[in-house]
Amino acid sequence: MRYIFFTIVFFSITFSSTLNLSISSNPSRINPILATDSASSEISSWIFNGLFKYDKDGKIVPDLASSYRFENNTTLLIKLKQNVFWHDGVKFSSKDVKFTYNTIKNPKIYTPITSEFDMVKDLQIIDNYTIKVIYKKPYFKALNIWMSGILPYHILKDEKDLMTSSFNKHPIGTGSYKLKELKISKDIVLTVNKNYYDFVPKIEKIIYKFIPDPTTSFYMLKQSQLDMGGLTPIQVDRQLDNSFKEKFNIFERASFGYTYLGFNLKSDKFKNKEIRTAISLAIDKKEILDILFFSHAKVCNGPFLPGTFAFNKDVKSIKQNIEKSKSILKKLGYNKKHPFSFTVITNANNSTRVNAAQIIQYQLNKANIKMKIRVMEWQAFLNTVVMPKKFDAIILGWGLSLMPDARSIWHSNSSKKGGFNLVNYSNQTVDKLIEEAEISIDQNKLGKIYKNMFKIIANDIPYIFLYIPNSITAVSKDIKNISPALIGLTYNENEWIK
Questions:
Q1: Pick from 399, 410, 421, 436: most CB atoms within 10 A?
Q2: CA 454/CA 462 separation, integer angstroms
Q3: pLDDT (0 to 100) of residue 115
Q4: CA-based diameter of the chain, in Å?
């Protein structure tokens, strides 16, 4: 009887537990190629798989693919796993990959990843489990673009309008979890895919509780009604008691994004690098972190994610030196009676940025630099200031990724209307490095190019890279096998036990 009892308990732990999470907004389309909001992306990530994925160290490894090889610099041969089934039991094959590619390239489909596939010349089906991708020229993101989730050909092949399809609310994927229940502004329920081709998760159900208010979410976390939840620095330092720490483990890592003070480099005020240097010398980034984040953040030294192949650890931030800042300004004709002045603009719905502006204003004043602050509603800020580039300086943020694409923000061509080179940065050497990187499929060579680019951009001071906030997550101690990694906590969720 003891043996039978043990078996029943083990079965309960493995297959009957529920992971309780929160979500603050409704997913618009649970479709990996149409997901543009964070809620849609998060739910889609459980349901769909790409051909490749990142491992815990940020290296690209096969997912739906079983293996791959480059026949030459422009031809990629991908073998697919043969033990993969869609949630409805139909077998996954090359047709699904071809269909997904054709859908992404369809001009009637509005997807944010279309441009990622511009370098693909052709995709050929060799057999049911082999595809050949031919690129127009060597492409540094040849593997990365196939991390996007694959769609089911057998379900969507006759769909007239994917943008409005019911599939986006009732998705069928190959992922480790299936969608069981989705209602507007209600809980979202996912159940384990027991036919998953990889390691079947031990947690049977995931419930996303719809909680739009972060205060309520924090309260429910403290009451153990949630198993995981994000924490703010002030919550960690001032609002957690010992009973919380007895129930939860707290994991902290650098987030995938930085905040910066950007200068309009076409403005006469900022064309001279010495002015930008003087401003940088007047700023104490560490003080900003201590005040805003209680030190739960890192000083940002440049444009690419720390810990990745693109990060240049040898580049350090300029340290505050008020006297040196004053000396540079004096040579340029500025002093206390005739101070250098400019206006910085940021968005009102981000109080952290507004507070950062106020701290910077105080610091710059010590060097006799007068910075005025203008705060605007987000859409007005975006439409009348940021995109038309009508500003002296702005405080904004930018997302970071494991595979950076420098063109969108640092290439001079991206300073044109609609581009994200908002500060009009232009450096011919950087342009050439970006173009060289884009045709490199050698990771070591790519790393050298990006580290060099990192150093040049940081030295040019188009931005003052300010800080990278930490991502802080509380996880119930009832959940075992949590193993933090560069890419986050959930990469090994199949191994979690509750």
A1: 410
A2: 12
A3: 87
A4: 90
Q: pTM of the predicted model, to two decimals?
A: 0.84
* pLDDT at 490 (0 to 100): 87
What CATH number is given for 24-176 in this structure?
Answer: 3.90.76.10
Tokens of 267: 């403005």
Query: Which residue carries 């992922």 as its tokens?
Result: 175
Domains of the chain: which residue ranges?
24-176, 257-470
How far apart, in whole angstroms, are the C-alpha atoms of residue 133 and residue 125?
A: 9
Cα(97)–Cα(76) distance, integer angstroms: 14
The pLDDT of 87-96, averaged and rounded, is 98
C-alpha–C-alpha distance, residues 148 and 418, integer Å = 24
Structure tokens at 196: 């998953």
CA distances from 447 to 10, 58, 411 (A): 47, 14, 18
Comparing C-alpha atoms, which of 90, 108, 105, 111 is closest to residue 159? 108
Nearest to 174 by CA among 68, 37, 45, 40: 45
Exposed/middle/buried for residue 162 (C-beta within 10 Å: 0-12, 13-18, 19+): buried
The stretch 305-326 carries a mean pLDDT of: 95
Query: Measuring CA to CA, which residue among 181, 185, 154, 151 is closest to residue 169?
Result: 181
Burial string for 252-281 (b: 16+ CB within 10 Å, else e) reads ebbbeebbbbbbbbeeebbeeeebbbbbbb
| Mean pLDDT (whole number) for 138-152 | 96
Strand residues in 1-146 grouped as ranges (E) = 18-23, 52-54, 60-62, 65-72, 75-80, 120-127, 130-135
Q: ∠ at Cα 270 (265, 276), nearest 5°?
A: 110
Span 480-484, average pLDDT: 92
Kindly state the helix (H) or strand (E) to which residue 358 belongs, with its residue range: helix 351-365
The CATH T-level fold of domain 257-470 is: Dipeptide-binding Protein; domain 3 (3.10.105)
pLDDT at 405 (0 to 100) = 87
State how far the Cα of 398 lies from the Cα of 419, in Å rounded to an integer. Answer: 14
Average pLDDT over residues 121-144: 97
Task: Name the percent of the chain lying above pLDDT 90.
Answer: 85
Which of these, 190, 146, 160, 159, lies nearest to 30 by C-alpha position? 190
Q: What is the mean pLDDT of residues 7-26?
A: 67
Nearest to 191 by CA among 16, 9, 377, 349: 16
* Terminal-to-terminal C-alpha distance of the chain: 25
Element (H, E) at 459: helix 443-460
pLDDT of residue 16: 63
Strand partners, 130: 79, 127
Q: How confident is the model at residue 1 (pLDDT cuts 50, 70, 90)?
A: very low
Q: Kindly list the strands in the beta sheet with 120-127, ordered across the sheet, starting from the edge strand earlier in the chain.
A: 65-72, 75-80, 130-135, 120-127
